[in-house]
């Protein structure tokens, strides 16, 4: 027993080595996924990233360890707060994170089959209108697009402004007619998936200062809109009912805002910034992945055919009307979406290290530094994902019995068991 205690004590107090330094593959234009995976393997799946705002990256060898390390050691909130630390006050950043989680929980409760059915109609309508606009022509009953990349870019912008599951409803009227809104939307969604993926170059330092100034002006604009909209809705709530799956309305209905304590526009900031988080997430997590998925099924026609046949079978058996039950039956669709995400997902799930921590291989990570999980290389690990992990295989997740809705070591789409 004493020897076991001594071993644990040594693990906590001593470090056998420091991490290897590797280049920032996810920000560099040269190099490829094979080089990146090899570099991480040679580094033992833990490395210092050069030219990055994030200090460390760890990958597959430590996935279970990363899941189990408590928040008091690898802090989630402090890492997230850094994203906009130059333009938001501390109390606003902290409260907006809390409000974002609360709004997400309430929004999910509000979603129902009827609402999703309505949104799916908007998506279909959007796709069809863009097909006609971007050089599409029809031959033998099939649509052909002359420039698929212009089409995908249009989907990204169109989806961001008009399609949502309650995230953008608060802003739909603004999105349709307001150039400033369109501008801020592009601004907040043009950054990398993670703020930590950027280079630390002189150019980017100047860019960061300029970006902070623009971000501040856009945040003020969102604050002003939400502030006016909240009181407009309260005044006319009986005569002008709104969609129940609407983030502003949810904040009002569930008294998240605490209206009696809102004396000026500064008091609205935490909730308006949390709504802005939803806006950014919709485009980065839904629209971009949707565009990548469309590109994948365009490149691999056998995938498209399998998906079409699966949906045809389900419609013939259960009818054309949407339902969650039928959606759960679309196993090939689940597998194909997850495969597309697997190959396009960057590293992330950042943490701030609160105390010096020694990994199970003896490598020490220093406190007050940041660490992220290497999803990019993890998602190409043959141990978890089988053969040919750098290639798209829409059946892969069917074979692995890996479902889109489940969070596991083989599916980090939803985070890492947060």
From TrEMBL:
Organism per entry: Smittium simulii
InterPro entries in the cross-refs: Cyt_P450_sf
Superkingdom of the organism of origin: Eukaryota
GO molecular function: heme binding; iron ion binding; monooxygenase activity; oxidoreductase activity, acting on paired donors, with incorporation or reduction of molecular oxygen
Name the UniProt record assigns to this protein: Uncharacterized protein
């Amino acid at each position: 027993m004493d020897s076991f205690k001594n071993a644990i004590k040594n693990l906590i107090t001593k470090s056998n080595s420091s991490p290897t330094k590797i280049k920032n593959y996810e920000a560099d234009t040269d190099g490829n996924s094979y080089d990146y995976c090899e570099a991480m393997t040679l580094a033992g799946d833990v490395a210092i990233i050069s030219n990055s705002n994030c200090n460390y990256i760890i990958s597959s060898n430590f996935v279970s360890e990363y899941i189990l390390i408590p928040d008091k050691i690898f802090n989630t909130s402090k890492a997230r707060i850094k994203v906009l630390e130059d333009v938001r006050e501390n109390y606003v950043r902290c409260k907006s994170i809390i409000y974002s989680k609360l709004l997400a929980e309430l929004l999910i409760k509000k979603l129902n089959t009827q609402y999703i059915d309505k949104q799916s109609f908007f998506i279909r309508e959007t796709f069809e209108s863009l097909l006609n606009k971007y050089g599409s022509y029809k031959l033998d009953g099939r649509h052909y697009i002359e420039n698929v990349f212009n089409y995908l870019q249009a989907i990204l912008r169109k989806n961001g402004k008009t399609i949502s599951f309650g995230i953008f409803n608060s802003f739909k009227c603004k999105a349709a007619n307001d150039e400033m809104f369109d501008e801020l939307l592009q601004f907040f969604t043009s950054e990398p998936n993670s703020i930590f993926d950027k280079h630390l170059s002189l150019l980017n330092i100047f860019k960061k200062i300029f970006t902070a100034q623009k971000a501040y002006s856009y945040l003020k604009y969102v604050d002003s809109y939400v502030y006016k909209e909240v009181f407009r809705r309260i005044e006319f709530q009986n005569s002008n009912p709104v969609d129940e799956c609407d983030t502003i309305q949810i904040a009002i209905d569930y008294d998240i805002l605490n209206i009696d304590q809102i004396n000026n526009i500064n008091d609205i900031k935490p909730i308006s910034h949390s709504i802005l988080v939803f806006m950014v997430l919709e485009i980065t997590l839904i629209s971009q992945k949707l565009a990548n998925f469309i590109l994948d099924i365009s490149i691999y026609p056998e995938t498209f055919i399998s998906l079409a046949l699966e949906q045809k079978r389900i419609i013939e058996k259960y009818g054309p009307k949407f339902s969650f039950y039928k959606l759960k039956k679309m196993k090939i669709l689940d597998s194909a979406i997850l495969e597309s995400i697997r190959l396009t997902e960057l590293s992330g799930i950042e943490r701030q290290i609160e105390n010096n921590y020694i990994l199970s291989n003896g490598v020490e990570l220093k406190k007050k530094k940041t660490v992220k999980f290497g999803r990019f290389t993890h998602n190409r690990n043959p141990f978890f994902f089988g053969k040919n992990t750098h290639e798209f295989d829409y059946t892969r997740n069917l074979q692995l019995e890996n479902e889109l809705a489940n969070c596991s070591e083989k599916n980090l789409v939803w985070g890492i068991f947060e």
